[in-house]
Prior knowledge:
Elements: H1 4-32, H2 39-72, H3 77-107, H4 112-144, H5 147-157, H6 174-183
Helix pairs in contact: 1-2, 1-4, 1-5, 2-3, 2-5, 2-6, 3-4
Amino acid sequence: MTPATLKILRDEHGALSAVLRSMSMLVADARRRNATPDFHALRAMLFYVDEFPEKLHHTKESSLLFPLLRQRTQEAAPVLDKLDRDHAQGEHAIRELEHLLIGWEMLGEPRRTAFEQALERYVNFYLSHMRVEETEILPLAERALTEDDWRTLDAAFSQHRDALTGREPDAAFRGLFRTIVNTTPAPIGLA
């Protein structure tokens, strides 16, 4: 039987990928139309990335999953080191994106290109990051971790309340998820 943690991680990777791609689509569509994007939707998606993947998902990977893997095998130590560095840089990267978006929104067109370029770098970076986790780390975890390890991880990761993965969000976040779903294009939104 597949541990719950693996499904949760894959679902969360899917949600983050969808949000990242949706941000790119909104920005690209605005560029094609020679218009400004829906800044409210972009702010909501950036806030989501900061609150869920950055603060919750990545933190538990680096504080729980990766240390357990290091205890069981040295096979992926350099890869885990790089992924931990990626996680450590994530907060700075999301703050930069938020700042660049506010700059574009407040100061207009001269700030557009800087945001677009930073968003493209961020999206490419995190899609690559998740691909490494999916193709190298999660298969290694399936082989190397014990049943007790999985029980520990399942208890921690099953507490996640990310509505974009089909879970019921905490009441405080319902409005955020409603905004994202109602203002962004598929695959995560209805717009």
